[in-house]
Amino acid sequence: xxxxxxxxxxxxxxxxxxxxxxxxxxxxxxxxxxxxxxxxxxxxxxxxxxxxxxxxxxxxxxxxxxxxxxxxxxxxxxxxxxxxxxxxxxxxxxxxxxxxxxxxxxxxxxxxxxxxxxxxxxxxxxxxxxxxxxxxxxxxxxxxxxxxxxxxxxxxxxxxxxx
Length: 163
Description:
Blueprint: H1 2-14, E1 32-38, E2 42-47, E3 54-56, H2 70-73, E4 87-88, E5 96-100, E6 106-110, E7 113-114, E8 136-138
Parallel strand pairs: 1-4
Antiparallel strand pairs: 1-2, 3-8, 5-6, 6-7
């Protein structure tokens, strides 16, 4: 756990991105949600480039908790300017919609769950953000949190990341 905390602290201090580019590279102004196979997790939802998408389980009832510096580590999947809705790829069976973030960005949701990338995933098919602080989880095509197993989350403000 100490190693994970150190990695997160380094990521928070060293990243300059804010997720304004569509949450990690959405092509041609579209936010596409697809599926990807991840070792130890199976099939999860991913962006168009195959990067795993996550949900912050403390975000309930339409309230966005990952704001400010949190989005440097966890860029939200955003619709690009001029785009009106996200696109579902093959194998995506959940309901895609959007929610307006406190900063005005339009974030993609999957079965009501706001979607994020993890800056620590360096390649498609990775899930290095899985289970961080027991609040960040990849999402299965059925809309379940992958590997969450009903575990209780840590305090929404633990770790100092504002969530």
